[in-house]
Amino acid sequence: MSGEELELPVSRAVNERLHAAIPGGAHTYAKGDDQYPQDLAPVISHGRGARVWDVDGNEYVEYGSGLRSVSLGHAHPRVLEAVRRELDRGSNFVRPSVVEAEAAERFLATVPTAEMVKFAKNGSDATTAAVRLARAVTGRARVALCADHPFFSVDDWFIGTTPMPAGIPSETADLTVTFPYGDLAAVEALFDRYPDEIACLILEPATQTEPPPGYLAGLRDLAHRHGSVLVFDEMITGFRWSEAGAQGLYGVTPDLSTFGKALGNGFAVSALAGRRELMEWGGLRHDGDRVFLLSTTHGAETHALAAAMAVQATYVEEGVTARLHALGERLAAGVRDAAAAMGVAEHVVVRGRASNLVFATLDARGVPSQEYRTLFLRRLLTGGVLAPSFVVSSALEEADVDRTVDVVGQACAVYRKALDAGDPTPWLGGRPVRPVFRRRV
């Protein structure tokens, strides 16, 4: 696969089938074909390790696997062995399986800052359960979330704050307020503006930038001083920052935290964890009003919990987090060198922690550009690299990273031509890619 030769006739046909049967043509908006250059949205046939194959037979080195969930690589042998073992024993029963106790104990040993845990299937259920619990414990309705972080839940308390609030009552959306990352004074001002109203602060402990010194501890102190609950969304930072998440790395324990994505290496499992005195509100061993915390038919399927235990064991025993950082550092350095060599270092920009890299595509004015993103993605795809981000998996080899850097260099050469021409349109191949959150189609 090279140059302009990439054609995806079978993928295009399957995309039409997807749109005919599924609103948006995908079950996750970030996987939609509007996120890719026109007629270059590959439909995946299968994957192994750090590579995937589309239904047209093209092979790609893949980044951001499963929206960051497949951090060990596709079809990881240790995970599959654990899953197969449980499938032969049944996966769902009318009473808890012993696997539920084993998985909970394993999680609490891996994330020792948590005292209790409850499993679910997706991140939204876990974050919404955290919000519900905070509201129940505090008797307050208002939620404060970090405005600089892109996603917390499919539920109304979050989606009402996005450019896609259709179908959400304004009364619900009005109960959510926001604060900027890294600014303790802004959070203090929010508490002053809504005295005794804020049930919780919810944020990712870190994203593309490291937390300022004292920031996370300061948030915890502010939350407790104002009678609020501090919630860390560790869907992404969990395992990628450290086996114990960002809270383990930075040494700041939240009241509640949520995990997912890497936890199951592609199998559906998420977790709400936290302090016992709060978590027990959702249990049976207290004398207050009951809280409907999490109750899911499939939340404790044994094969998914077995996958989670295998993932945790692999991370700890094989030093996966360190490998992710090493691979990411090699990739970031290579991409920056390639961009600099082509004179686009100020336009193709790699950001974030080495284990969780993203890239920005900036126009001649230094403004983020969907057109230049389209150009860049198109050149990556034609070079055999599927990379909506540069988030690595541990299945990558150094040779894969080096090949990716070579393809990035070719893409940057075209990027330079477009900048010199003052117009990327001739290199787009059709309409530009679109942001996920937008008001109109």
From TrEMBL:
One of its GO terms (molecular function) is glutamate-1-semialdehyde 2,1-aminomutase activity. It is an enzyme of class 5 (isomerase). Gene3D superfamilies: Aspartate Aminotransferase, domain 1, Type I PLP-dependent aspartate aminotransferase-like (Major domain). Its EC number is 5.4.3.8. SUPFAM superfamilies: PLP-dependent transferases. InterPro entries: Aminotrans_3, PyrdxlP-dep_Trfase, PyrdxlP-dep_Trfase_major, PyrdxlP-dep_Trfase_small. The keyword Lyase does not apply. Keywords: Isomerase, Pyridoxal phosphate. It holds the Pfam family Aminotran_3. Its cofactor is pyridoxal 5'-phosphate. Belongs to the class-III pyridoxal-phosphate-dependent aminotransferase family. This is Glutamate-1-semialdehyde 2,1-aminomutase. It comes from Streptomyces werraensis.
